[in-house]
Write a structure and sequence with these properties.
Helix content: 40-55%
Number of strands: 10
Largest sheet: 5 strands, parallel
CATH class of the largest domain: Alpha Beta
Number of domains: 4
Number of helices: 22
CATH topology of the largest domain: Rossmann fold
CATH architecture of the largest domain: 3-Layer(aba) Sandwich
Strand order of the largest sheet: 5-6-7-4-8
Shape: globular
Structural class: alpha/beta
Strand content: 5-15%
Radius of gyration: 26 Å
CATH superfamily of the largest domain: P-loop containing nucleotide triphosphate hydrolases
Protein backbone atom coordinates (compact mmCIF):
# COMPACT_ATOMS: atom_id res chain seq x y z
CA UNK A 1 0.00 0.00 0.00
CA UNK A 2 1.45 3.34 -1.03
CA UNK A 3 -0.76 5.73 0.91
CA UNK A 4 -3.01 5.97 3.91
CA UNK A 5 -6.66 5.21 3.32
CA UNK A 6 -8.74 8.05 4.68
CA UNK A 7 -12.20 6.57 4.27
CA UNK A 8 -11.47 3.56 6.41
CA UNK A 9 -14.71 3.81 8.37
CA UNK A 10 -16.74 3.19 5.21
CA UNK A 11 -15.05 -0.15 4.62
CA UNK A 12 -16.46 -3.41 5.89
CA UNK A 13 -14.30 -5.30 8.41
CA UNK A 14 -13.63 -8.03 5.85
CA UNK A 15 -12.47 -5.48 3.26
CA UNK A 16 -10.12 -3.85 5.75
CA UNK A 17 -8.61 -7.19 6.78
CA UNK A 18 -8.08 -8.12 3.12
CA UNK A 19 -6.36 -4.78 2.54
CA UNK A 20 -4.13 -5.33 5.59
CA UNK A 21 -3.18 -8.78 4.33
CA UNK A 22 -2.31 -7.33 0.92
CA UNK A 23 -0.15 -4.63 2.52
CA UNK A 24 1.50 -7.20 4.78
CA UNK A 25 2.29 -9.47 1.82
CA UNK A 26 4.00 -6.55 0.09
CA UNK A 27 6.12 -5.81 3.15
CA UNK A 28 7.28 -9.33 4.04
CA UNK A 29 7.28 -10.78 0.53
CA UNK A 30 5.01 -13.42 -1.00
CA UNK A 31 7.01 -16.44 0.20
CA UNK A 32 7.12 -15.43 3.87
CA UNK A 33 3.48 -14.34 3.75
CA UNK A 34 2.48 -17.70 2.26
CA UNK A 35 4.40 -19.59 4.95
CA UNK A 36 3.64 -17.58 8.08
CA UNK A 37 0.38 -15.72 7.49
CA UNK A 38 -1.88 -16.97 4.71
CA UNK A 39 -3.02 -20.19 6.37
CA UNK A 40 -1.74 -19.95 9.91
CA UNK A 41 -3.12 -16.60 11.10
CA UNK A 42 -6.47 -14.86 11.36
CA UNK A 43 -6.52 -11.08 11.75
CA UNK A 44 -9.30 -9.22 13.57
CA UNK A 45 -9.63 -5.45 14.05
CA UNK A 46 -11.25 -4.39 17.32
CA UNK A 47 -11.05 -0.66 17.99
CA UNK A 48 -7.42 0.25 18.63
CA UNK A 49 -6.38 -3.40 18.72
CA UNK A 50 -5.38 -5.88 16.04
CA UNK A 51 -5.87 -9.44 17.23
CA UNK A 52 -3.71 -12.04 15.52
CA UNK A 53 -5.13 -15.52 15.85
CA UNK A 54 -2.48 -18.27 15.64
CA UNK A 55 -2.54 -22.05 16.02
CA UNK A 56 -0.03 -22.26 18.90
CA UNK A 57 2.36 -20.31 21.13
CA UNK A 58 5.38 -21.22 19.02
CA UNK A 59 4.02 -19.50 15.91
CA UNK A 60 2.83 -16.55 18.01
CA UNK A 61 6.33 -16.07 19.41
CA UNK A 62 7.96 -16.38 16.00
CA UNK A 63 5.66 -13.88 14.29
CA UNK A 64 5.92 -11.43 17.18
CA UNK A 65 9.72 -11.56 17.16
CA UNK A 66 10.14 -11.35 13.38
CA UNK A 67 7.18 -9.53 11.85
CA UNK A 68 5.63 -7.26 14.49
CA UNK A 69 6.91 -4.08 12.84
CA UNK A 70 5.63 -5.13 9.40
CA UNK A 71 2.21 -5.97 10.84
CA UNK A 72 1.99 -2.57 12.54
CA UNK A 73 3.05 -0.77 9.38
CA UNK A 74 0.52 -2.67 7.26
CA UNK A 75 -2.36 -1.77 9.59
CA UNK A 76 -1.24 1.84 9.72
CA UNK A 77 -1.08 2.02 5.92
CA UNK A 78 -4.67 0.80 5.65
CA UNK A 79 -6.37 2.41 8.65
CA UNK A 80 -4.18 5.42 9.31
CA UNK A 81 -3.79 4.36 12.98
CA UNK A 82 -1.03 2.56 14.85
CA UNK A 83 -2.67 -0.49 16.43
CA UNK A 84 -1.87 -2.39 19.59
CA UNK A 85 -1.12 -5.91 18.36
CA UNK A 86 -2.16 -8.86 20.51
CA UNK A 87 -1.86 -12.59 19.88
CA UNK A 88 -4.49 -15.19 20.71
CA UNK A 89 -4.63 -18.94 20.25
CA UNK A 90 -7.30 -19.80 17.69
CA UNK A 91 -8.52 -23.40 18.25
CA UNK A 92 -9.83 -23.64 14.70
CA UNK A 93 -6.44 -22.82 13.23
CA UNK A 94 -4.81 -25.26 15.61
CA UNK A 95 -7.15 -28.02 14.57
CA UNK A 96 -6.57 -27.45 10.88
CA UNK A 97 -2.79 -27.02 11.08
CA UNK A 98 -1.82 -30.58 10.07
CA UNK A 99 -3.75 -30.31 6.82
CA UNK A 100 -2.69 -26.79 6.00
CA UNK A 101 1.05 -27.37 5.75
CA UNK A 102 1.72 -30.87 4.40
CA UNK A 103 3.34 -29.58 1.20
CA UNK A 104 4.95 -26.28 0.32
CA UNK A 105 3.59 -24.51 -2.72
CA UNK A 106 5.69 -24.24 -5.87
CA UNK A 107 6.93 -20.74 -5.15
CA UNK A 108 8.22 -21.65 -1.69
CA UNK A 109 10.01 -24.78 -2.97
CA UNK A 110 11.57 -22.65 -5.66
CA UNK A 111 12.61 -20.08 -3.08
CA UNK A 112 14.22 -22.76 -0.91
CA UNK A 113 16.20 -24.27 -3.77
CA UNK A 114 17.37 -20.95 -5.23
CA UNK A 115 21.11 -20.53 -4.84
CA UNK A 116 22.08 -17.47 -2.84
CA UNK A 117 25.08 -16.33 -0.86
CA UNK A 118 23.85 -18.23 2.19
CA UNK A 119 22.45 -21.31 0.49
CA UNK A 120 23.70 -24.70 -0.57
CA UNK A 121 26.37 -24.91 -3.26
CA UNK A 122 26.42 -28.55 -4.20
CA UNK A 123 27.20 -28.25 -7.89
CA UNK A 124 30.88 -27.71 -8.82
CA UNK A 125 29.74 -25.09 -11.33
CA UNK A 126 28.40 -22.86 -8.53
CA UNK A 127 30.67 -20.53 -6.61
CA UNK A 128 30.44 -18.19 -3.67
CA UNK A 129 31.62 -14.60 -4.03
CA UNK A 130 34.82 -14.69 -1.94
CA UNK A 131 37.92 -16.84 -2.47
CA UNK A 132 41.11 -17.55 -0.54
CA UNK A 133 43.12 -16.12 -3.43
CA UNK A 134 41.73 -12.64 -2.72
CA UNK A 135 42.21 -12.86 1.05
CA UNK A 136 44.86 -10.37 2.20
CA UNK A 137 47.14 -12.05 4.74
CA UNK A 138 48.66 -10.16 7.66
CA UNK A 139 49.83 -10.72 11.21
CA UNK A 140 46.25 -10.34 12.49
CA UNK A 141 44.81 -13.18 10.41
CA UNK A 142 47.71 -15.40 9.35
CA UNK A 143 46.91 -18.21 11.78
CA UNK A 144 43.26 -18.31 10.72
CA UNK A 145 44.27 -18.33 7.04
CA UNK A 146 46.73 -21.20 7.54
CA UNK A 147 44.08 -23.18 9.40
CA UNK A 148 41.67 -22.61 6.52
CA UNK A 149 44.31 -23.84 4.05
CA UNK A 150 44.80 -26.96 6.18
CA UNK A 151 41.08 -27.71 6.01
CA UNK A 152 41.17 -27.38 2.24
CA UNK A 153 44.34 -29.41 1.78
CA UNK A 154 43.38 -32.52 3.72
CA UNK A 155 40.46 -34.91 3.36
CA UNK A 156 40.34 -35.23 7.13
CA UNK A 157 41.51 -31.99 8.70
CA UNK A 158 43.07 -32.06 12.18
CA UNK A 159 40.92 -29.02 12.96
CA UNK A 160 37.36 -30.17 13.45
CA UNK A 161 35.57 -28.00 14.03
CA UNK A 162 37.48 -24.97 12.82
CA UNK A 163 35.96 -22.08 14.79
CA UNK A 164 36.92 -18.59 13.57
CA UNK A 165 35.93 -15.60 15.67
CA UNK A 166 36.54 -11.86 15.59
CA UNK A 167 34.85 -8.49 15.31
CA UNK A 168 32.80 -7.13 12.45
CA UNK A 169 34.37 -6.96 9.01
CA UNK A 170 37.71 -8.63 9.76
CA UNK A 171 37.39 -11.49 7.23
CA UNK A 172 35.53 -14.36 8.89
CA UNK A 173 32.97 -14.72 6.11
CA UNK A 174 35.74 -14.35 3.53
CA UNK A 175 37.55 -17.37 4.97
CA UNK A 176 34.40 -19.48 5.20
CA UNK A 177 33.41 -18.81 1.62
CA UNK A 178 37.02 -19.21 0.51
CA UNK A 179 37.20 -22.66 2.11
CA UNK A 180 34.02 -23.76 0.33
CA UNK A 181 35.19 -22.46 -3.04
CA UNK A 182 38.64 -24.02 -2.67
CA UNK A 183 37.20 -27.41 -1.66
CA UNK A 184 34.75 -27.30 -4.57
CA UNK A 185 37.65 -26.60 -6.94
CA UNK A 186 40.10 -29.17 -5.60
CA UNK A 187 37.59 -31.90 -4.79
CA UNK A 188 34.60 -31.36 -7.12
CA UNK A 189 32.71 -34.38 -5.79
CA UNK A 190 32.62 -32.94 -2.26
CA UNK A 191 29.11 -32.45 -0.96
CA UNK A 192 29.33 -29.09 0.83
CA UNK A 193 26.94 -26.59 2.33
CA UNK A 194 27.41 -22.95 3.30
CA UNK A 195 24.73 -20.97 5.13
CA UNK A 196 24.24 -18.61 8.03
CA UNK A 197 23.02 -19.73 11.44
CA UNK A 198 19.89 -17.64 10.83
CA UNK A 199 19.20 -19.66 7.68
CA UNK A 200 19.74 -22.86 9.64
CA UNK A 201 17.24 -21.73 12.28
CA UNK A 202 14.67 -20.56 9.72
CA UNK A 203 14.90 -23.79 7.73
CA UNK A 204 14.60 -25.83 10.90
CA UNK A 205 11.43 -23.97 11.91
CA UNK A 206 10.03 -24.32 8.40
CA UNK A 207 10.76 -28.05 8.46
CA UNK A 208 8.85 -28.37 11.73
CA UNK A 209 5.88 -26.45 10.34
CA UNK A 210 5.76 -28.42 7.10
CA UNK A 211 6.50 -31.79 8.72
CA UNK A 212 9.63 -32.17 6.58
CA UNK A 213 12.12 -32.54 9.42
CA UNK A 214 13.74 -35.65 7.95
CA UNK A 215 14.35 -33.88 4.64
CA UNK A 216 15.97 -30.99 6.49
CA UNK A 217 18.15 -33.34 8.53
CA UNK A 218 19.33 -35.27 5.50
CA UNK A 219 20.25 -32.05 3.74
CA UNK A 220 22.25 -30.75 6.70
CA UNK A 221 23.86 -33.96 7.89
CA UNK A 222 24.73 -35.73 4.65
CA UNK A 223 27.51 -33.27 3.86
CA UNK A 224 31.26 -33.60 3.65
CA UNK A 225 31.74 -29.96 4.63
CA UNK A 226 29.29 -27.83 6.60
CA UNK A 227 30.21 -24.14 6.91
CA UNK A 228 27.97 -21.98 9.08
CA UNK A 229 28.42 -18.24 9.48
CA UNK A 230 27.33 -16.13 12.49
CA UNK A 231 26.88 -19.17 14.73
CA UNK A 232 26.28 -16.82 17.68
CA UNK A 233 22.78 -16.33 16.22
CA UNK A 234 21.81 -19.60 17.93
CA UNK A 235 22.18 -18.00 21.37
CA UNK A 236 18.94 -18.15 23.41
CA UNK A 237 17.41 -20.66 20.96
CA UNK A 238 17.56 -23.94 22.90
CA UNK A 239 15.53 -26.03 20.45
CA UNK A 240 17.61 -24.95 17.47
CA UNK A 241 20.80 -25.48 19.50
CA UNK A 242 19.72 -29.04 20.27
CA UNK A 243 19.06 -29.70 16.59
CA UNK A 244 22.41 -28.26 15.59
CA UNK A 245 24.16 -30.32 18.28
CA UNK A 246 22.82 -33.52 16.71
CA UNK A 247 23.76 -32.26 13.25
CA UNK A 248 27.28 -31.47 14.43
CA UNK A 249 27.68 -34.85 16.13
CA UNK A 250 26.49 -36.73 13.05
CA UNK A 251 28.91 -34.94 10.74
CA UNK A 252 31.83 -35.13 13.17
CA UNK A 253 31.39 -38.85 13.91
CA UNK A 254 31.34 -39.51 10.16
CA UNK A 255 34.77 -37.91 9.91
CA UNK A 256 33.47 -34.93 7.95
CA UNK A 257 34.37 -31.27 8.41
CA UNK A 258 32.55 -28.45 10.21
CA UNK A 259 33.69 -24.82 9.89
CA UNK A 260 32.07 -22.08 11.98
CA UNK A 261 32.37 -18.30 12.30
CA UNK A 262 31.23 -16.08 15.15
CA UNK A 263 31.65 -12.58 16.53
CA UNK A 264 32.81 -14.04 19.85
CA UNK A 265 34.73 -16.94 21.35
CA UNK A 266 32.45 -19.94 22.09
CA UNK A 267 32.73 -19.31 25.84
CA UNK A 268 31.69 -15.70 25.34
CA UNK A 269 28.44 -16.44 23.51
CA UNK A 270 25.65 -15.90 26.00
CA UNK A 271 22.89 -18.49 26.40
CA UNK A 272 24.77 -21.14 24.42
CA UNK A 273 24.43 -24.67 25.78
CA UNK A 274 27.43 -26.14 27.55
CA UNK A 275 27.35 -29.14 25.22
CA UNK A 276 27.78 -26.94 22.17
CA UNK A 277 30.50 -24.86 23.83
CA UNK A 278 32.42 -28.07 24.62
CA UNK A 279 32.09 -29.27 21.02
CA UNK A 280 33.27 -25.95 19.63
CA UNK A 281 36.36 -25.65 21.84
CA UNK A 282 37.34 -29.27 21.17
CA UNK A 283 38.63 -28.24 17.74
CA UNK A 284 40.69 -25.29 16.52
CA UNK A 285 39.46 -21.95 17.88
CA UNK A 286 41.27 -19.06 16.22
CA UNK A 287 40.74 -15.32 16.45
CA UNK A 288 41.04 -12.72 13.70
CA UNK A 289 41.99 -9.28 14.96
CA UNK A 290 41.50 -5.96 13.14
CA UNK A 291 44.09 -5.60 10.35
CA UNK A 292 47.35 -3.79 11.07
CA UNK A 293 48.55 -0.80 9.05
CA UNK A 294 50.43 -2.76 6.36
CA UNK A 295 47.52 -5.16 5.90
CA UNK A 296 45.10 -2.25 5.60
CA UNK A 297 47.29 -0.70 2.90
CA UNK A 298 47.35 -3.94 0.93
CA UNK A 299 43.57 -4.29 1.26
CA UNK A 300 43.16 -0.79 -0.17
CA UNK A 301 45.49 -1.57 -3.10
CA UNK A 302 43.74 -4.81 -3.93
CA UNK A 303 40.22 -3.43 -3.67
CA UNK A 304 41.11 -0.30 -5.65
CA UNK A 305 42.56 -2.45 -8.43
CA UNK A 306 39.38 -4.53 -8.57
CA UNK A 307 37.15 -1.42 -8.67
CA UNK A 308 39.19 0.43 -11.26
CA UNK A 309 39.22 -2.50 -13.60
CA UNK A 310 35.48 -3.06 -13.69
CA UNK A 311 32.35 -1.05 -13.02
CA UNK A 312 33.51 2.56 -12.92
CA UNK A 313 36.28 2.35 -15.50
CA UNK A 314 33.96 0.73 -18.04
CA UNK A 315 31.81 3.85 -18.11
CA UNK A 316 34.59 5.77 -19.83
CA UNK A 317 37.62 3.95 -21.19
CA UNK A 318 39.78 7.09 -21.11
CA UNK A 319 38.80 8.20 -17.62
CA UNK A 320 41.57 9.05 -15.21
CA UNK A 321 39.89 6.88 -12.60
CA UNK A 322 41.82 3.96 -14.09
CA UNK A 323 45.06 5.46 -12.85
CA UNK A 324 46.65 3.57 -9.99
CA UNK A 325 45.49 4.70 -6.56
CA UNK A 326 48.34 6.94 -5.29
CA UNK A 327 50.38 5.55 -2.43
CA UNK A 328 49.87 8.65 -0.26
CA UNK A 329 46.11 8.24 -0.64
CA UNK A 330 46.35 4.59 0.36
CA UNK A 331 48.36 5.49 3.45
CA UNK A 332 45.92 8.26 4.35
CA UNK A 333 42.95 5.89 4.23
CA UNK A 334 44.78 3.12 6.11
CA UNK A 335 45.95 5.49 8.84
CA UNK A 336 42.49 6.90 9.47
CA UNK A 337 40.33 3.77 9.17
CA UNK A 338 41.48 1.03 11.50
CA UNK A 339 38.46 -0.95 12.63
CA UNK A 340 37.58 -3.35 9.82
CA UNK A 341 37.84 -4.18 6.14
CA UNK A 342 34.38 -2.94 5.21
CA UNK A 343 35.25 0.60 6.28
CA UNK A 344 38.35 0.53 4.10
CA UNK A 345 36.48 -0.78 1.08
CA UNK A 346 33.69 1.73 1.55
CA UNK A 347 36.13 4.64 1.59
CA UNK A 348 38.03 3.38 -1.46
CA UNK A 349 34.81 2.77 -3.37
CA UNK A 350 33.48 6.24 -2.60
CA UNK A 351 36.74 7.86 -3.70
CA UNK A 352 36.95 5.94 -6.98
CA UNK A 353 33.27 6.59 -7.72
CA UNK A 354 33.75 10.32 -7.20
CA UNK A 355 36.87 10.35 -9.39
CA UNK A 356 35.11 8.46 -12.16
CA UNK A 357 31.99 10.61 -12.14
CA UNK A 358 34.00 13.85 -12.08
CA UNK A 359 36.64 12.48 -14.49
CA UNK A 360 39.39 13.80 -12.22
CA UNK A 361 42.64 12.23 -11.13
CA UNK A 362 42.70 10.92 -7.58
CA UNK A 363 44.88 13.02 -5.28
CA UNK A 364 45.44 13.25 -1.56
CA UNK A 365 43.53 16.54 -1.45
CA UNK A 366 40.59 14.89 -3.19
CA UNK A 367 40.72 11.98 -0.75
CA UNK A 368 40.74 14.30 2.25
CA UNK A 369 37.68 16.11 0.92
CA UNK A 370 35.68 13.19 -0.43
CA UNK A 371 35.96 10.82 2.53
CA UNK A 372 35.87 13.45 5.28
CA UNK A 373 32.24 12.61 6.05
CA UNK A 374 33.05 8.92 5.85
CA UNK A 375 35.80 9.34 8.45
CA UNK A 376 33.49 11.31 10.71
CA UNK A 377 30.99 8.45 10.68
CA UNK A 378 33.45 5.69 11.43
CA UNK A 379 34.50 6.34 15.00
CA UNK A 380 35.71 3.19 16.77
CA UNK A 381 32.75 1.02 17.74
CA UNK A 382 32.65 -0.81 21.04
CA UNK A 383 30.78 -4.11 21.02
CA UNK A 384 29.18 -5.74 24.01
CA UNK A 385 31.38 -8.81 23.51
CA UNK A 386 34.48 -6.61 23.91
CA UNK A 387 33.08 -5.17 27.14
CA UNK A 388 32.18 -8.56 28.58
CA UNK A 389 35.57 -9.99 27.67
CA UNK A 390 37.40 -7.13 29.37
CA UNK A 391 35.22 -7.29 32.50
CA UNK A 392 35.38 -11.08 32.77
CA UNK A 393 39.17 -11.06 32.42
CA UNK A 394 39.52 -8.34 35.05
CA UNK A 395 37.41 -10.16 37.62
CA UNK A 396 38.79 -13.62 36.83
CA UNK A 397 35.58 -15.19 35.56
CA UNK A 398 34.10 -16.05 32.15
CA UNK A 399 31.48 -14.13 30.16
CA UNK A 400 29.21 -17.15 30.46
CA UNK A 401 29.13 -16.69 34.24
CA UNK A 402 28.10 -13.04 33.78
CA UNK A 403 25.07 -14.35 31.88
CA UNK A 404 24.24 -16.92 34.53
CA UNK A 405 21.91 -16.60 37.51
CA UNK A 406 24.77 -16.52 40.02
CA UNK A 407 24.59 -13.61 42.46
CA UNK A 408 27.77 -13.83 44.54
CA UNK A 409 29.69 -10.59 45.05
CA UNK A 410 32.24 -11.11 42.27
CA UNK A 411 29.71 -12.10 39.62
CA UNK A 412 27.25 -9.36 40.59
CA UNK A 413 30.00 -6.72 40.45
CA UNK A 414 31.20 -7.93 37.05
CA UNK A 415 27.63 -8.01 35.74
CA UNK A 416 26.94 -4.48 36.98
CA UNK A 417 30.11 -3.13 35.37
CA UNK A 418 29.22 -4.91 32.09
CA UNK A 419 25.74 -3.41 32.05
CA UNK A 420 26.98 0.07 32.95
CA UNK A 421 29.76 0.09 30.34
CA UNK A 422 27.43 -1.32 27.68
CA UNK A 423 24.85 1.35 28.43
CA UNK A 424 27.54 4.03 28.18
CA UNK A 425 29.44 2.86 25.10
CA UNK A 426 26.75 1.27 22.92
CA UNK A 427 23.35 2.25 21.62
CA UNK A 428 21.68 -0.79 23.13
CA UNK A 429 18.58 -0.13 25.20
CA UNK A 430 18.12 -1.46 28.73
CA UNK A 431 15.78 -4.28 27.59
CA UNK A 432 18.29 -5.29 24.89
CA UNK A 433 21.16 -5.36 27.38
CA UNK A 434 19.05 -7.39 29.79
CA UNK A 435 18.13 -9.96 27.14
CA UNK A 436 21.75 -10.30 26.04
CA UNK A 437 23.00 -10.85 29.56
CA UNK A 438 20.93 -13.86 30.40
CA UNK A 439 17.37 -12.61 29.91
CA UNK A 440 17.60 -10.14 32.80
CA UNK A 441 14.76 -7.67 33.33
CA UNK A 442 15.34 -4.14 32.02
CA UNK A 443 14.73 -2.85 35.56
CA UNK A 444 17.74 -4.90 36.68
CA UNK A 445 19.87 -3.06 34.12
CA UNK A 446 18.62 0.33 35.26
CA UNK A 447 19.29 -0.47 38.92
CA UNK A 448 22.76 -1.77 38.09
CA UNK A 449 23.63 1.39 36.16
CA UNK A 450 22.31 3.60 38.97
CA UNK A 451 24.31 1.67 41.55
CA UNK A 452 27.52 1.93 39.50
CA UNK A 453 27.07 5.67 39.03
CA UNK A 454 26.78 6.04 42.80
CA UNK A 455 29.84 3.86 43.53
CA UNK A 456 31.98 5.68 40.98
CA UNK A 457 30.86 9.15 42.08
CA UNK A 458 31.78 8.29 45.70
CA UNK A 459 34.87 6.36 44.60
CA UNK A 460 33.80 3.69 47.02
CA UNK A 461 35.88 0.64 47.95
CA UNK A 462 34.99 -2.50 45.98
CA UNK A 463 35.57 -5.97 47.41
CA UNK A 464 35.54 -9.20 45.42
CA UNK A 465 37.08 -12.65 45.36
CA UNK A 466 39.49 -13.33 42.50
CA UNK A 467 41.18 -16.65 41.62
CA UNK A 468 44.23 -15.38 43.56
CA UNK A 469 42.35 -14.26 46.65
CA UNK A 470 40.43 -11.28 48.04
CA UNK A 471 40.72 -8.01 46.13
CA UNK A 472 40.03 -4.41 47.18
CA UNK A 473 40.09 -1.42 44.81
CA UNK A 474 38.53 1.99 44.35
CA UNK A 475 35.47 2.06 42.10
CA UNK A 476 36.81 4.83 39.87
CA UNK A 477 40.14 3.03 39.47
CA UNK A 478 38.40 -0.16 38.38
CA UNK A 479 36.15 1.78 36.02
CA UNK A 480 39.09 3.64 34.42
CA UNK A 481 41.04 0.43 33.91
CA UNK A 482 38.07 -1.36 32.35
CA UNK A 483 37.27 1.58 30.09
CA UNK A 484 40.88 1.73 28.90
CA UNK A 485 40.88 -1.99 28.11
CA UNK A 486 37.89 -1.80 25.78
Amino acid sequence: MQGIVTDDETRSPETRINAINEALAQKVGPQKFQIWFKSSTRLTLAGEYLKVGVPNLFIASWIENHFLMEITQAVQAVTGRSPKVTFTIDPELSGNLPTRFPILDTRVRSHESRVTSHESRRSPTKRLKLTLDTFVIGSSNELAYNAAKAVVGEQQSPFNPLFIHGGYGVGKTHLLQGICNAVAKERPDTNWLYLSAEDFANQFVLALKTKKLEVFRRRMRETDLLAIDDIHFLASKPSTQEEFLHTFNTISLAGKQVVLASDAHPKMIGQLSEKLVNRFVSGMVVQINPPDFHTRCQICRQYAKACMGTAFANKAQNTRARDRLPEDVIRYIAENLRTNVRELEGAVLKLIAYSSLQNEKITLAMAQTVIAEHLARTDPIVHISDIESAVATYFGITPAIIHSSKKDRTVALARHFSMYLTRKHTKMSSPEIGRFMGDKNHATVLLACKKMEDLISRNADLHWLSPTGNKVAKAKTVFDQLEASI
